Amino acid sequence: MLKHVRLLLICILAVSVCGCAYKIIPLHTVETIQTSEGGAKVLYSATDQNTGNLKIWVMAVDGTNQSQLTLSEKSVEKHASWSPDGNRILYTSNIGKDSNGKRNYDVWMMDVNGSNFTQLTTNGSADIMPVSSPDGKHIYFLSNRGWVWNLWRMEVAL
Q1: pLDDT tens readout for residues 136-147
Q2: In this structure, how many other beta carbons lie within 10 angstroms of the beta carbon of residue 40?
Q3: Which of 17, 52, 114, 158 lies at a CB distance of 3.0 to 4.6 Å from 69, suitable for a disulfide?
Q4: CATH code (residue 91)
Q5: What is the DSSP string of 48-95?
Q6: Per-residue pLDDT band at 2 (split at 50, 70, 90)
């Protein structure tokens, strides 16, 4: 089901004003995709051709000005979403380590230009798929804390 939704989103994005479809990004490289509030930019996770890991990218809706925002060679960054004001990006990364020194997925935030990386969760569980509340006061995410997947909410100032 999720693959079909991703394919539909890519197809919708690829339709130009004249109704003609054209390829912007090969589908096999993209995991998640989201347009900005004003519709001018597209935020997505795609495979870095050098490392083979998913990274966070942004581009104009017409496919131009593609810019990779996360550059670490050893980590995976995915599940990117915009903050309500469009100035920050929430995402999942395994660049951090838990108290046992083991890599796991946590929720992170960065500025829209790819600077000021901030780790928002730290624990031995996977914290994934963060999204902001409309007012920017809370982040919702999935976590398998306690060995059960649940929806979690935390306060944060976006």
Answers
A1: 999 999 999 989
A2: 11
A3: 114
A4: 2.120.10.30
A5: -TTT--EEEEEEETTS-S-EE----SS--EEEEEE-TTSSEEEEEE--
A6: very low
